[in-house]
Amino acid sequence: MKTGKFINLGEYKNIKLGYGTVDYKNLKTVYLKFNSWLQPNDEDEDFNEILNFSKRKIKTHINTLNSKRFEQPCIVDLDVRTKGIKLNKRSFMNLEVTLYVKEYFDIKNKTIKEDLKRLMTHIVDETLDNNQLYNFNKTKN
């Protein structure tokens, strides 16, 4: 019996957004999913360092929220193949943020959906959106 649920939130600044859970009947975690194609503006940058810095910024940002719905620790999984990053080549970025739930709520609720979309757009604006280092694109080409 399938108990997972995923809600697509559309796109924001060429990044596909969505959230979900693996078990909405026994809610313990909610994951935020960000997908896009990443293209660097400068090949000389150390992208491992840039991505690690972005992960730390996301964790810090979420930990300072003082959310009524989510616990402090979160898991940030930012997956980009940095070995193949070249100036005129796009690499796929998959970012997943796992949030631990304090108490049960309906993830399909309109207020929850709006709150999570606001959180996700804020994460993009505050931690990922850096046009000097890289651009986000909808497709590989």
Describe what this molecule looks like in 3D.
- By secondary structure, this protein is α+β, with helices and mostly antiparallel strands.
- The protein has one domain: GMP Synthetase, Chain A, domain 3, CATH 3.30.300.
- Helices cover 26% and strands 38% of the residues.
- It has 2 helices and 6 strands, in the order βββαββαβ.
- The protein has helices at residues 47-63, 110-128, and strands spanning 5-12, 15-21, 29-40, 70-80, 91-101, 134-137.
- Strands 1, 2, 3, 4, 5 and 6 form a 6-stranded antiparallel sheet that branches.
- The mean pLDDT is 87.
Brief descriptors of the model:
141 residues; alpha+beta; GMP Synthetase, Chain A, domain 3; 6 strands; elongated
Outline the secondary-structure elements:
Elements: E1 5-12, E2 15-21, E3 29-40, H1 47-63, E4 70-80, E5 91-101, H2 110-128, E6 134-137
Antiparallel strand pairs: 1-2, 2-3, 3-5, 3-6, 4-5
Helix pairs in contact: 1-2
